[in-house]
Amino acid sequence: MVDIEHQMILRAAAEQRQGSDAVITDTQEPNLPRSLPRIFAALSNDGRLALIDELARAEAGPGPDELSISTLAVRAGLSRFAASRHLAILRTAGLVIATRVRQSTVHKLNWPALAQIEDWMYSVLDCEPPGS
């Protein structure tokens, strides 16, 4: 697990070095069967789960839908460095989308990736999602 996490951090750092004023990550929906191990590896950390939770709360509540690293770090109870490192892993897994806005970077959830996880879970359980 540590090797996968280390590779994800290195890949995210390489993406950030390339720089861009547009979207930092690839927003394509992941090919679920191949990406499931990477997605679940990204979700296997309490800090990353806290970041996902805070992004979901931000999008569900009043106020901005996208949050900066500093805001996310405070809300999730993490240092800015830890939040940045965890967000890089979540971006690499396709769960979070980061966009440059002037001199800062804001983050939001990639809902299609999360919906694919849900779809996969229902297929494993061999049942229909509620409301289908």
TrEMBL record:
Keyword set includes Endoplasmic reticulum: no
Annotated HTH arsR-type domain residues: 28-132
UniProt keyword Coiled coil present: no
InterPro entries: ArsR-like_HTH (IPR011991), HTH_ArsR_DNA-bd_dom (IPR001845), HTH_MetalResp_TranReg (IPR051081), WH-like_DNA-bd_sf (IPR036388), WH_DNA-bd_sf (IPR036390)
Designated name of the protein: Winged helix-turn-helix transcriptional regulator
Highest taxon listed in the record's lineage: Bacteria
Record-level Gene Ontology MF annotations: DNA binding; DNA-binding transcription factor activity
Keywords, alphabetical: DNA-binding, Transcription, Transcription regulation
